[in-house]
């Protein structure tokens, strides 16, 4: 489908983006590059949603299909050793958003070259997917009121699946998630006289253990849920009982009721464990992303396009990881899709300091976008 020189150029775009990673809402160079290429190819380009977001359209009238790529990087020190490794200390594309951007750009170039015969194609290059909720901000700032779409789709490379695998579930794809910071406060004192201080460290340890048992004790075995304590910060010396500790982590779920139960248990357990040690607990609990739930007709459409390409569309289970594309799916029908991207040999996972997008699947994803755009805009 693609000229080999165009594929090579798309890989070069990807490598350039990888060398110059930008964190959420800071993707100014990335946005400039995207907008410049799209404008040169004849797309109608709009900038400014969520600050660094880019929306581009081609064609006119209905039906209207939205294709989304995320563009931000992560605050990770890269350890790939690749020739195109990050040149920005402490920042890297460890989730493949550089590849997602290049895939959609390659597709955009092909679509522009062939033209849009029916309907309208809307490209959405979204900032700040990694925990900052760029999709939510774009929606709040009028993404689908300024650029209404009938269906919206997003792709994520998935190193846990072999190249050639393509997953589009009819319902649950990715979990909802929240974050919590529990500040435990009490009286500090000398390490040799613990009876004169409160049990701040004991409360933190018991809170951490109790929180991670919530899904097993509060949810049905048939209801997915995860509570992970990922940080405990306290103390400054061997011989000082501290007066403060912070226990932090994340919760994941699918069902609305499960989300309510988990939050309630986090609050009650933290308060109870702190009180048992003579301490108090100040709980900051923030819900970040809703669950990513596909609509069945759109998922079926995506599977049919992938099947026509010869991809393996056998089903896989949902993931307890999260994705802010959920905010777009809360507004319009659509589907979130996984494209197999495993490497032979060592195959680092997403968010690893050794992760690098598999360039071999870049033209596969781009071809899928082109075929889907054509199929979805047929009257």
Automatic annotation (TrEMBL):
<dbReference type="InterPro" id="IPR011650">
    <property type="entry name" value="Peptidase_M20_dimer"/>
</dbReference>
<dbReference type="Pfam" id="PF07687">
    <property type="entry name" value="M20_dimer"/>
</dbReference>
<keyword id="KW-0464">Manganese</keyword>
<dbReference type="InterPro" id="IPR002933">
    <property type="entry name" value="Peptidase_M20"/>
</dbReference>
<protein>
    <submittedName>
        <fullName>Hippurate hydrolase</fullName>
    </submittedName>
</protein>
<dbReference type="GO" id="GO:0046872">
    <property type="term" value="F:metal ion binding"/>
</dbReference>
<dbReference type="InterPro" id="IPR036264">
    <property type="entry name" value="Bact_exopeptidase_dim_dom"/>
</dbReference>
<feature type="domain" description="Peptidase M20 dimerisation">
    <location>
        <begin position="180"/>
        <end position="274"/>
    </location>
</feature>
<feature type="binding site">
    <location>
        <position position="156"/>
    </location>
    <ligand>
        <name>Mn(2+)</name>
    </ligand>
</feature>
<feature type="binding site">
    <location>
        <position position="97"/>
    </location>
    <ligand>
        <name>Mn(2+)</name>
    </ligand>
</feature>
<feature type="binding site">
    <location>
        <position position="95"/>
    </location>
    <ligand>
        <name>Mn(2+)</name>
    </ligand>
</feature>
<feature type="binding site">
    <location>
        <position position="130"/>
    </location>
    <ligand>
        <name>Mn(2+)</name>
    </ligand>
</feature>
<feature type="binding site">
    <location>
        <position position="351"/>
    </location>
    <ligand>
        <name>Mn(2+)</name>
    </ligand>
</feature>
<keyword id="KW-0479">Metal-binding</keyword>
<keyword id="KW-0378">Hydrolase</keyword>
<dbReference type="GO" id="GO:0019877">
    <property type="term" value="P:diaminopimelate biosynthetic process"/>
</dbReference>
<dbReference type="GO" id="GO:0050118">
    <property type="term" value="F:N-acetyldiaminopimelate deacetylase activity"/>
</dbReference>
<dbReference type="InterPro" id="IPR017439">
    <property type="entry name" value="Amidohydrolase"/>
</dbReference>
<dbReference type="Pfam" id="PF01546">
    <property type="entry name" value="Peptidase_M20"/>
</dbReference>
